[in-house]
Amino acid sequence: MSNAYYRDELTPSLDRAPACPFDPAPSLTALRAEQPIARLAAPEGAPCVWMITGYDLVRQILADPRFSSRYETHYHPLAGGHLPPAPVGDLTGMDAPRHTRFRKLLAGAFTVRRMNLLTERVTEITRERLDAMERQGPPADLVDVFTQPVPALMICELLGVPYEDRDRFQGSTRALPDAGTAEAQYAAFVELGTYLRELALAKRAKPTDDLLSDLATGGDLTDEEELLRYLSVAATGMRGVLEDVELGGRQLKAGDTVVIAINAADRDPARFAGPDVLDLRRSAAGHLAFGHGVHQCLGQQLARIEMRVAFPALLSRFPTLRLAVPAEELSLRTDPSQVYGVHSLPVTWDQG
């Protein structure tokens, strides 16, 4: 293979700028302006891998069935090969018609109407966590006492996790994004999967009124907003190209892989005016923080409810809430493959 094949290939850094770690990597921002679809460097003989940073292109890929979500179609340059197939039950690694069948089983539990019915429970859990935070007094780690427990407890409500098991469940879900190594993350995933299989068997034997009981007894399964646009905490995704396709003026071949930079796409000035400004009055409709197309996040309505309830309640209860340490001392998750955020958020407030 001639060296000409490599001349326009790139190896962009995915490291975020220290000056503003909430922004996408500067190399992705530059790439979006110059080449919203660019070929990445790959070993000789490997499939082509394309980095997609433009909003319209990312949205097109997410809605096009010619781009596969199946992990085994994704060539990962850092891993030096194709990824293994998705574990049983992982909807993000499935294509239609298998994905369609499983998603239909879940869709009824995540309708806007059903999520709205959970608003009262979100309010109760939020109040309970704020009460505990007030009793403890300042300072406090907002991740430990509030932002992690609220969504975790709501998932417990949906799945029907028994009260006595909730510490175990929350421990596993907390370990997934915070694991320091791939091995530790995998161990947390295995632990969570083991527990859910045990719980599914219990629900099959004695169903209750919850999502896991519905699935376990359905006979179709085996045991095997603006702030969102600005942060787009899931930074990247991948798709495998199933057939030759033209995208953004480039010819992609069957067997190629595309890497979609969701955070860069959600800051595309061609879609959002002044995209690097956090404007809470902006209409950010169409953002990609929850994905797009058939794999759009099922839990997005619950996430929106949690944000609408929890954030105002937090600031209403503690109007003087502020950082307890200098901002530069915050421990940020910097691995671009993980959900972005902070490991801990020490805060304090004035006691009345």
Care to give the gist of this entry?
By secondary structure, the chain is α+β, with helices and mostly antiparallel strands. It has two domains: 1-88 and 230-287, Uridine Diphospho-n-acetylenolpyruvylglucosamine Reductase, domain 2 (2-Layer Sandwich); 95-223 and 297-352, Cytochrome p450, CATH 1.10.630. It is built from 13 helices and twelve strands.
Using brief descriptors, characterize the structure shown:
alpha+beta; Uridine Diphospho-n-acetylenolpyruvylglucosamine Reductase, domain 2; Cytochrome p450
What do you see in this structure?
The protein has helices spanning 26-34, 55-63, 98-107, 112-117, 119-136, 142-147, 149-159, 166-178, 182-205, 211-216, 226-231, 262-265, 300-317; strands spanning 37-39, 49-52, 67-68, 75-76, 81-82, 140-141, 236-241, 245-247, 250-252, 257-261, 322-323, 346-348. By secondary structure, it is of the alpha+beta class. The protein has two domains: 1-88 and 230-287, Uridine Diphospho-n-acetylenolpyruvylglucosamine Reductase, domain 2; 95-223 and 297-352, Cytochrome P450 (Cytochrome p450), CATH 1.10.630.10. A hairpin with a 2-residue loop joins strand 8 (245-247) and strand 9. Helix 5 (119-136) packs parallel to helix 13. The protein is globular and about 60 Å long. Residues 1-7 have low confidence and may be disordered.
Describe the protein's topology.
Layout: H1 26-34, E1 37-39, E2 49-52, H2 55-63, E3 67-68, E4 75-76, E5 81-82, H3 98-107, H4 112-117, H5 119-136, E6 140-141, H6 142-147, H7 149-159, H8 166-178, H9 182-205, H10 211-216, H11 226-231, E7 236-241, E8 245-247, E9 250-252, E10 257-261, H12 262-265, H13 300-317, E11 322-323, E12 346-348
Helix pairs in contact: 5-7, 5-13, 7-8, 8-9
